[in-house]
Amino acid sequence: MYPCPCGYFSDPERACTCSHQTVTRYQKRISGPMLDKIDIHIEVRRVDFEKLSDNRRGEASDEILARVEVARQKQRACFADLNNGVMTNADMRVAEVRQFCELDEVGQQLIKAAMSQLQLSARAYHRILKLARTIADLAGEENI
């Protein structure tokens, strides 16, 4: 979604014409429970022409697919002994999150601060941990 009605709130090149109240009201149109169901929130900024027209190529789709398959295989192997229907990180319930998504002290402090400052729900807490586990799996890391 756009960050405001005119679409230029926080744009580095073009000034937003909306008042602070208008931006706040616009962003509150999506309710907390709805936002709670979205796993990843990313602000996507305008891409410069030079980057769009550059001949450099990003990571190939088949390379990404191979990395995803390795992560999925790791997840299936990890959950194979549980025999409870959990096959991927997304399937984890609270017990599995506690078992497989342990954080170090710094990670604990970070998520504690996020929970407090952003007033996140228990559901959001568990979704963050499952997403962090998936990112670690994609990066080939044992720990989050």
Layout of strands and helices, then pairs:
Layout: H1 20-27, H2 32-36, H3 49-53, H4 61-79, H5 94-100, H6 105-118, H7 122-138
What does this structure look like?
This protein has a domain at 61-138. The chain is mostly helical and 144 residues long. The mean pLDDT is 89. The protein has helices at 20-27, 32-36, 49-53, 61-79, 94-100, 105-118, 122-138. It is built from seven helices and no strands. Helix content is 52%, strand content 0%.
Tags for this model:
144 residues; mainly alpha; globular
Task: Give the overall shape.
Answer: globular
Extract low-pLDDT stretches. none
* Assembly classification: single chain
- Structural class by helix and strand composition: mainly alpha
C-alpha Rg (nearest Å):
19 Å
Q: Largest sheet, if any?
A: none
Residue-averaged pLDDT, rounded?
89
Helix content: 40-55%
Order of helices and strands: HHHHHHH
Describe this structure in a few short sentences.
By secondary structure, the chain is an all-alpha fold. It has seven helices and no strands.
